[in-house]
Amino acid sequence: MSSAPSTSAPRTVLVTGGNRGIGLAIASAFQRLGDTVIVTYRSGEIPTGLNGVKMDVSESASVEAGFKEIEERFGSVDVLVANAGITRDGLVMRMSDEDFGDVLEANLFGSFRVAKAVVRGMLKKKSGRIIFVGSVVGLLGSAGQVNYAATKSGLVGMARSLARELGSRGITANVVAPGFVDTDMTAVLPEDRRKAIIDAVPLQRFCSPEEVAGVITFLASSSASYITGAVIPVDGGLGMGH
Hints:
This protein is α/β, with parallel strands linked by helices. The chain has helices spanning 21-32, 60-74, 97-125, 137-140, 146-166, 184-187, 191-200, 209-219, and strands at 12-15, 36-41, 51-54, 79-82, 128-133, 171-178, 231-234.
């Protein structure tokens, strides 16, 4: 999907975990539309041309400090893309409470923290877009990812509740659910594992980060103003029917 046209005035767009991988592709897509883009990051460099704010979404104090900086420098956020997340994969028999809790804190609780932080400004403007980056495994399930799948499934309930709670004020909340995406993480998979994944995908290939970004910029555009509470798969047909 090609990037949707931007609105006439540049928006303030926040992409959590936007300094690499899918997050960077999303942030770059909004930047090309002429928006003011802020990325949060825990470590590493701020990508050229983007604004960066250090934030660990798994810690309330870090989120509060980060949003204080965002509001002082940029004002309220018009579009939130909650993308930051982690994995701690393992079979359930060996999964520790810490492995489950860490993923819950970052992926689900972290998304709640940043969504809560942007809502006040959106309510004042009577407009806003909240977009959660979920996963096909939140709908299908995945062996060895009980923690990760549970958090991504939880984002669906969160988005749909926000859609009902905030819809009367012109705020939408949706989930984009990518399948297997070509990133540094999937590039290191053994060739036989990559082949097995591709064989299971009707379109017979991995998704590009830019394809995920295209769907997200569409959801943030005026063309998607009547879409809320939706789960939009970008998975090549892997999860169809779920």
